[in-house]
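JOB MANIFEST
job_type = single_chain_structure
chain_count = 1
residues = 181
[input]
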Amino acid sequence: MKKRSMAARVLVLLALVTWPLANAADTAATLLPVKAMRAAAVAPAPVANAAFAPGAGSTPAPAFTGVLSIPQSPLATLPALIKPMQDGRDARLFPGVTLEFFTLGDILVPVQRGEMVRETGPAAAPSYWRVIPQFGRIWHEKADGPWSRAAFAIMLVNDTENHAHQGLATFLYREGQVSQL
């Protein structure tokens, strides 16, 4: 029993030590500027949590109602997975999914809340993962010009094993357009 709780403390400590810390002045607009959000480039490391929440000086954003079509994408893992293929599905792939959202005030609400969303498009290799989108927020930052921000929690889950990985996602939007996720 003692070994278990010690291992848990070590895992938490490692997560805290390796997660990037934001400066008090950092906002979503400085951590993930519009130019970076509109590019197809992948960030070289995890982004500080401050990039996923309204900062000081943020203002209300216009309502959002829309569908996000997220293509299947490679996932980076450290260390590399020893056995990435499980039952013919690849654990190194984020599933291609379609998620619908609407807002109530500044709350971003997923239409498919509380349920696992399976891959929605054909893929060369199916992903091992499903996703569960969760509630989020919308806001506007002056530095973003005409764009507004949205962020939400998203959970990667597997439908055959009892485990989940929690994450955060963000995107920019303006009338008729959405940035990269």
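[summary]
The mean pLDDT is 84.
The radius of gyration is 18 Å.
exit_status = 0
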